[in-house]
Amino acid sequence: MSQKDPAKISAANFQNLHRFLRGYFHQDLTDEYGTPQEAAETFCEDADTEERLAVAREWAHFMESTHGRSVTEVNHLLADKLGAGVRLSEEDLEQVNETFLRYLKPKTRNHHEDEQDD
Q1: What are the tens digits of pLDDT across the range 10-49?
Q2: CA-CA distances (angstroms) from residue 100 to 7, 32, 91, 105?
Q3: From its phi and psi, is residue 69 left (phi > 0), alpha (psi between -120 and 50) or beta?
Q4: What is the sign of the dihedral through the CA atoms of 38, 44, 46 and 47?
Q5: What single DSSP character describes residue 27?
Q6: Strand, coil or helix: what is 94?
Q7: What is the signed CA dihedral for 73, 31, 28, 49, rounded to 10 degrees?
Q8: pTM here?
Q9: pLDDT one-digit tens code per residue, 59-104
């Protein structure tokens, strides 16, 4: 089986992502949050650091595993394998991806800015 084998995408292998999708990407997403990106942002505000990082890592792994697949195929996996209750557009996927990637990037501090403030 290849790394991109959809058989490896399951609630058992993506437990944190599964819980996030069922709790936030449900049929009332539009009424409750407005957009998938807002739902992801709300989750990130609600979750503790450990939970937020776990979901962000699994989201990144899911996106890597589905790279090159059509939006229709990605939505099929999100819904049928991981419990999402909404269909995402390509733009939605990119925005949610950006939201989670922010939490995976190490925070760096620009020392040059500090020196200029002196």
Answers
A1: 999 999 999 999 999 999 999 999 999 999 999 999 999 9
A2: 24, 20, 14, 9
A3: beta
A4: positive
A5: T
A6: helix
A7: 80
A8: 0.83
A9: 999 999 999 999 999 999 999 999 999 999 999 999 999 999 999 8
- Is the Cα dihedral 13, 104, 99, 95 positive or negative? negative
Nearest to 19 by CA among 42, 43, 35: 43
* Tokens coding 10: 């399951």
Structure tokens belonging to residue 76: 């099929």
The residue type at 6: P
Residue in the block written with tokens 């997403």: 29
Q: Where exactly are the structural domains of the chain?
A: 18-105
37 and 92 in contact (C-beta within 8 Å)? yes
